[in-house]
Amino acid sequence: MRLLNENLEEQIKQRTLELIRANSQLKQEIAERAIAESEVRRLNAELEQRVAERTAQLAASNAELQQEISERRLLEEKLHFSENKVRAIFEAMTDIVLVLDRRGNVEVLPTNTAAFGEADLDLVNQTIAHFFDDENPDNWWLVIQQVLDTRETFNFDYSLKVGGREVWFAACISVLSKDAVIWVARNISLRKLAESALCKKK
């Protein structure tokens, strides 16, 4: 009987130890799971924070982009208006307008020279040809060089023999950039005729 009791006590001890070990392991697993859940919550919170920050950044970038688009559209509208205004001004001008640079390049700006009634004389081409005429006693390139060097506007009158008659111009040369000038020449033939007639009367 005593032997039976001893065996029973031994079994109870073994079972108790097993339960203690199982309970300890369970507590460890619960603790590890709690740590893991805490880490998951931390990562979720960090992810939500990053998402919120990124969303705010995207919203700010989108607002900035919309602002840039609005500003660009406004600039394009202003540029279009300015281009139309400049075009209208040039279409109303009856002067010869050239842009010339140090390298000898000549650009003709579109104006309404036909309003002179001189369209058939091709005054623009005659004026440009005068720059490259080796027999021209007036070296206009030197005048342009002078304007670029002094940065001062230069005015003078000149005439061209076109279509068997003399056509007079008043030229104004102004600095346009470091290496270029703008040449504006106005037909003053009628004024010259009036001055000549006035001199004859005197």
Describe the structure.
It is a single chain. The protein is α+β, with helices and mostly antiparallel strands and 202 residues long. It has two domains: 92 residues; 109 residues, 2-Layer Sandwich (Beta-Lactamase). It is 61% helix and 19% strand. It has four helices and five strands. A five-stranded antiparallel β-sheet has the order 2-1-5-4-3, sandwiched between helices. Strand 4 and strand 5 form a beta hairpin. The protein is rod-shaped and about 165 Å long.
Name its key features.
Beta-Lactamase; rod-shaped; alpha+beta; 5 strands; 202 residues
Brief digest:
This protein has 202 residues and is an alpha+beta fold. The protein contains four helices and five strands.
What's the total count of β strands? 5
Bin the helical content.
55-70%
The averaged pLDDT comes out at: 80
Q: What is the CATH architecture term of the largest domain?
A: 2-Layer Sandwich
β-strand amount:
15-25%
The best one-word shape is: rod-shaped
Q: Supply the CATH superfamily name of the largest domain.
A: PAS domain
Largest sheet strand order:
2-1-5-4-3
Output the structural class.
alpha+beta
